[in-house]
Amino acid sequence: MNAAWPLWEVFVRARRGLSHTHVGSVHAADGETALQAARDLFTRRQEGVSLWVVPSADIVASDPSAEAELFEPAADKAYRFPTSYVLPADVDHM
Amino acid sequence: MSQAEFDALIDADERIEPDDWMPDDYRKTLVRQIAQHAHSEIIGMQPEGEWITRAPSLHRKAILTAKVQDEAGHGMYLYGAAESLGVDRAELLDRLHNKTQKYSSIFNYETPEWADVGAIGWLVDGAAIANQVPLCRCSYGPYGRAMVRICKEESFHQRQGFQIMLTLSEGTPEQKAMAQRALNRWWWPSIMMFGPPDTDSPNTTRSMAWGIKRYTNDELRQQFVDATVPQAELLGLAVPDPDLVWNEERGHYDFGEPDWDEFATMVKGEGEIPDLRISTRRNAHAEGEWVREAAVAYAEKQQQRERVA
Amino acid sequence: MPADLLTHVLRQADRTLVLSHRLAEWLTHAPELEEDMALANISLDLLGQARHLYTYAGKLAGHGHDEDHFAYERDATDFRNPLIVEQPNGDFAVTMARQVLHDHAAFLYWESMCSSTDETLAALAARAVNETRFHLRHSTGWMIRLGDGTDESHRRAQAGLDTMWPFAEELLGADDEDDLRTAGLIGPRFDGAWRAAVGATVAEATLTMPPEPPTRSGGLRGEHSEHLAPMLKVMQGLARAHPGATW
């Protein structure tokens, strides 16, 4: 029997109002023990108020070689940013 | 991604991430270095861990437990970084247990007295931090991120060690003598933690070109000596190096040559202490197997029960 | 003679210190790195509880002694911990069986102490009850996994329970503390709730409750098994070699 525990990715919410952020991984046989291990490893110094664990094998990632086709097309669409719009000096808050 | 794109990222001081294409040698160098680093953390739990049950006050007992626990945690952060390169932690632990991968030879020294716990924190962790801070900017993303976390946590390790040395130095004559003996034992091993001299370190150039390493061994060693000697003076303890002298012209301390033959012997990892370190790890792993199996078996049963339900 | 509050506080302080020490012995020997972390955390929580309790004991005793006096300068016969916490760790199943029996009792104890008329103890209980709830989650989780895991782990879990069960009774408190209960300084007994809680864990772990009632006691009166003195010798050796020194 293979006694090695599978890998889980750990996400911590540092405090209320913030998103969960990836912090690292733990090994555990199931979700409940993965949560306990994540608590012991990643929140010893009050780093969090909420945890997610996800089996690493279940993460679907974008292909780094497709970085150009996925992300570069967004580069020439400056009109999505408010800084592209020059306003008359009299308009203060917009 | 291609070699050219990889090179461009390195040249631009960008980070390489797990799924990126990377040269085989870059991957191999990283796996070896990160694994060795992780092994050092968990083997490093042993010499100090022996003092948890013997710590002379409850406050020190709590600090030391937290510190040794941190080392387990640092090992886990680092194994996690190595695993992002496509190796399993179980496989890396096997390589530690069968001695095909190494750990830092600093942990092949003994800790016969309580003051050794202080000296390890002050000197060994001090040297480790000097080595590790530049690694926070390592070109491999997961390694750099693990190091940021580790360096943040480790600064308390050095301080608690220095505080032990300070308390002993200001204590009874016996305590001060104990502190001096520990400094004598740990000074040269700490100096040697930065690795062989640059003239004798074949991998340094390549690791620096790849952004895995940021400073040479000798640069870091000098930085450590310059920082530590004034601290020893503050403790009123004597650094066991007759050649140690401030060089006004260089603006640095000159210091003696470590015993590199001893270093070579320690790196080989042969003898009673290295055997003890490895057999302790091996036994823990072997005796834990039925526990790990039980957890896996239970998880499988639970999954089956959920499918039926 | 009925026990006073100082004796009660020392019983709790010694219980938490000795168990903390036993759990710390696991460090570098745990079945997996994740478990080194977990056991160290629990050990540190218990050590924290012990330190608060000893500090309070020093106040109650009125002699101005600090936590280290109680931990380092008393002999085994002065210790008032239940026998179960000084027993050797054995394998992981023995340790987890001890934790399950202990943690259920500790949880019920601290819960009952939240409404103690003693403000110091009530405040300590409010924190300890959360710590203990997590310890309980850890130990019952393991007992269930070991009991309902493989044939080998089931056999070992049952053996662990059988090893620790004879010492369990003392976890429910001493029989000379009724005056403290009447005064509201400590909470009501929780024997029934403890039996039900342990029974539920044992059943979920597919294990069998040992048929005989627990037989071993004496720790709360200072009559210890052969295992406490050697443990204290290790713990106290350095401190005692340098009387009066600061560390």
Summarize the SSE layout with pairings.
The complex is a heterotrimer of chains A (94), B (309) and C (247).
Chain A: E1 7-13, E2 20-27, H1 31-42, E3 50-55, H2 67-71
Antiparallel strand pairs in A: 1-2, 1-3
Chain B: H1 3-11, H2 24-43, H3 45-49, H4 58-83, H5 89-97, H6 114-132, H7 141-169, H8 173-192, H9 204-209, H10 217-235, E1 245-247, E2 252-254, H11 260-268, H12 272-287, H13 289-308
Chain C: H1 5-24, H2 33-61, H3 67-72, H4 83-86, H5 92-113, H6 119-147, H7 151-164, H8 178-182, H9 191-204, H10 228-241
Helix pairs in contact in C: 1-2, 2-6, 5-6, 5-7, 5-9, 6-7
Any descriptors?
heterotrimer, A: 94 residues, alpha+beta, 2 helices, 18% helix, elongated, C: 247 residues, mainly alpha, Ferritin, 10 helices, 0% strand
Description of the molecule:
The complex is a heterotrimer of chains A (94), B (309) and C (247). By secondary structure, chain A is α+β, with helices and mostly antiparallel strands. Helix content of chain A is 18%, strand content 22%. In chain A, strand 1 and strand 2 form a beta hairpin. Chain B has 13 helices and 2 strands; from the N terminus they run H-H-H-H-H-H-H-H-H-H-E-E-H-H-H. In chain B, helix 2 runs antiparallel to helix 4, helix 4 runs antiparallel to helix 7 and helix 6 (114-132) runs parallel beside helix 8. Chain B is globular and about 70 Å long. Chain C starts with a helix and ends in a 6-residue tail after the last helix. Chain C is globular, with a radius of gyration of 18 Å. Chain C is an all-alpha fold and 247 residues long. Chains B and C meet through helix 3, helix 4, helix 12 and helix 13 of B and helix 1, helix 2, helix 3, helix 6 and helix 7 of C.
